[in-house]
Write a structure and sequence with these properties.
Helix content: under 10%
CATH architecture of the largest domain: Beta Barrel
Largest sheet: 8 strands, mixed
Distance between the termini: 44 Å
Number of domains: 2
CATH class of the largest domain: Mainly Beta
Strand content: 35-45%
Structural class: mainly beta
Number of helices: 3
Order of helices and strands: EEEEHEEEEHEEEEEH
Length: about 200
């Protein structure tokens, strides 16, 4: 008998009431606030069979238990997690909730060729321009873009939140040959948070 999995839309704040079947879309490490040489958390973005997304956080004490198990693109059964409010400043999903993976959490890799893939959250340049006119643009969840990098500008160093950060402007072009320049990218996060495909 096939196992029955719950859906992200049915989650409520508190301890888990059912097992989730999820595909890992993204995972990235975030350094500790007071020591950038140490990993603070392992952050993950998952989606279920309906394409709904949810963010998950693994605290540093538990990272070694799960780091080698989790691989982007793979499907997992996730059990015994905690559901909380998504109060992250930089949001990776529109979901008001997030998952905390702690010492009692159980994660098992699954082989399910029929599980859908919704890895990219693509936005066109036209959509990005429209988003910029909305008052909550700065709080919009992260998204993916697709295009050809046609120019890279010299990196500059700025202090952000009291920390020196290297930033670089790049210009990308879409299939309609529309250039998009407003891409000030933190070099540390470029490969982690933004998917850019070289066509």
């Amino acid at each position: 008998m096939a196992p029955v999995f719950g859906l992200i839309k049915d989650l409520e704040v508190g301890k888990s009431k059912f097992t989730l079947q999820l595909r890992l879309v993204r995972s990235y490490e975030v350094p500790q606030f007071h020591n950038i040489n140490e990993i603070g958390t392992l952050e993950c973005v998952f989606h279920d069979k309906e394409g709904s997304r949810i963010h998950a956080t693994i605290q540093n004490l538990q990272i070694e238990n799960f780091k080698n198990l989790l691989h982007e693109g793979n499907v997992y059964a996730v059990m015994k997690y905690i559901v909380g409010n998504n109060n992250m400043r930089t949001k990776t999903t529109t979901n008001r909730l997030k998952i905390l993976i702690y010492k009692d959490t159980r994660i098992a890799e699954l082989v399910d060729d029929g599980f859908p893939t919704h890895v990219l959250n693509l936005k066109s340049f036209e959509e990005i321009e429209s988003m910029k006119t909305t008052p909550d643009f700065q709080d919009a969840p992260l998204f993916d873009v697709m295009g050809i990098i046609i120019s890279c500008y010299k990196p500059v160093e700025k202090v952000i939140n009291g920390k020196p950060t290297k930033l670089m402007d790049i210009m990308i072009e879409d299939l309609e040959y529309i250039n998009y320049y407003y891409f000030l990218v933190a070099l540390y996060f470029l490969s982690l948070l933004t998917s850019i495909f070289f066509i």
